[in-house]
Amino acid sequence: MIKQLKQVKRKIVTFFQTPQEKRHALVGPAKLWKMKQDFQINFLKSQGLQPNQKLMDIGCGTLRGGIPLINYLEKGNYYGIEVRNTVLEEGRKELKEHDLEHKEPHLIAFSEFNEIALDAKLDVMLAFSVLIHMEDTIVEKCIEFISKQLGNNGAFYANVNLVSHQDSNWQGFPVVFRTLEFYEALASKNNLKVTTIGSLGELGHISGQELGDKQVMLAFKKA
Ligand SMILES: C[S@@+](CC[C@H](N)C(=O)[O-])C[C@H]1O[C@@H](n2cnc3c(N)ncnc32)[C@H](O)[C@@H]1O
Predict the structure, then answer these.
(1) Nearest atom of ligand 1 to the alpha carbon of 33
(2) How much distance in Å is there from the Cα of 90 to the middle of ligand 1?
(3) In which domain, by residue range, is 77 found?
């Protein structure tokens, strides 16, 4: 009975969602999509992102964060990579609906990081709310990949959970909590150094969700 009531409630909520809320619910809370979109470009601009730089958005999903970045960057400078092809398809629709196909972003579906071979070195790499969904073995491959693709003066930004909490689940992915030492060791193993920039809340990400706003933004650069 409770299960049926929950299903009815979910149907009613979905019925009243806007098309963009429905789409971006594939990558996070429907009502927060715009705040999370604005946060990503504002944060990257605050770190000095310039239109002529090449940027890779790891786990770009529905292009919730990607659309304003594609708009801001020069043609061909946005690289979005994503493991769920159906979700990336929604990103392609979003791109079309925003009339941004002429910006020719590189949208790449993949399974394993070692499948991706790019000649281009990236100035900026971002994984917004992605490392928190990677098991240790996958995050290790991800940081190896970052080290290989990041330009000498480049930076990789990623928000992570540093508080101690029980791991859980989100849309079939784990939600993981690790120590800063874990990321420091991984960075050092891959010739990178990592610094903390601040909590998401301090940086303007106000979701009303305590654990989310407490996540910390890390910056990885070449050691
Ligand atoms: C919380 S969503 C964030 C999406 C996007 N970064 C944004 O903020 O709009 C996390 C995304 O990372 C993707 N993802 C999970 N594991 C991944 C992996 N190993 N490599 C690339 N993408 C991954 C998921 O499919 C999902 O689309």
Answers:
(1) 9
(2) 13
(3) 24-222
Query: Is the pLDDT confidence value at 1 over 70?
Result: no
pLDDT of residue 140 exceeding 80, the answer is yes
Q: What is the mean pLDDT of residues 82-105?
A: 98
Tens of pLDDT, residues 17-55: 999 999 999 999 999 999 999 999 999 999 999 999 999
Phi-psi region of 157 (alpha: psi -120 to 50; beta: other; left: phi over 0): beta
Domain count, the chain: 1
Helix H or strand E encompassing 212: helix 210-214
Residue 110's CATH number: 3.40.50.150
Is it the case that residue 2 has pLDDT exceeding 80?
Answer: no
The reply to whether 13 falls in a domain is: no
Does residue 212's CB lie within 6 angstroms of at least one atom of ligand 1?
Answer: no
Residue 83 lies in a domain: yes
CA distance 136 to 133: 10
Check pocket membership of 90 for ligand 1, CB cut-off 6 A.
Answer: no
d(CA 97, CA 85): 18
Residue 119 lies in a domain: yes
Residue 41: CB partners within 8 Å, gap ≥ 6?
49, 65, 68, 69, 72
Residue 12 counted as domain residue: no
